[in-house]
Specification:
Elements lengths: L1 E8 L1 E4 L5 E4 L5 E3 L10 E14 L7 E9 L2 E11 L9 E14 L3 E9 L9 E6 L1
Parallel strand pairs: 4-10
Antiparallel strand pairs: 1-5, 2-3, 5-8, 6-7, 6-9, 9-10
């Protein structure tokens, strides 16, 4: 298994033909508009896009990806575990799995965070996807 893409986007969606559409891909800063009460949590809406390549020998085992949101040293919510499964197609040697996860995260203040992705029970390394929240 190989990680091919990991990024944050303002919006992303999967298509039935195996492609995906991204708006605001590579976003790292979220500006919070006015209208928030002091001390009230701020809602962030964004997507994490992960693209993984597997070869035909890796299809026989169910694998997973686990996403965790960290903000200012604290975990926000619970990790999301997503299955990585593909259907074998005669003649194919490489398979691609696109994981598009919409995240709706409440953060308590401005600051910095990241999305941690663990692939295949930690056997495949993935860099953190960092972000910043500011006014």
């Amino acid at each position: 298994m190989k990680l091919r893409v990991s990024l944050l986007a303002r919006e992303a969606k999967s298509n039935v033909d195996g492609t995906f559409d991204i708006i605001g891909g590579g976003v790292t800063e979220f500006k919070v508009a006015g209208g928030y009460l002091l001390g009230a949590p701020m809602k962030l809406d964004f997507a994490a896009v992960i693209r993984v390549e597997m070869d035909d020998k890796e299809l026989d085992t169910l694998r997973s990806a686990e996403l965790t949101v960290m903000f200012e040293g604290q975990r926000i919510g619970w990790p999301q575990r997503l299955p990585l499964a593909m259907r074998r197609v005669e003649g194919e040697k490489r398979y691609y799995v696109n994981l598009i996860t919409e995240l709706h995260v409440l953060v308590p203040k401005t600051g910095e965070g990241y999305i941690q992705v663990v692939l295949d029970e930690g056997r495949v390394s993935a860099p953190h996807m960092h972000f910043r929240v500011s006014f």
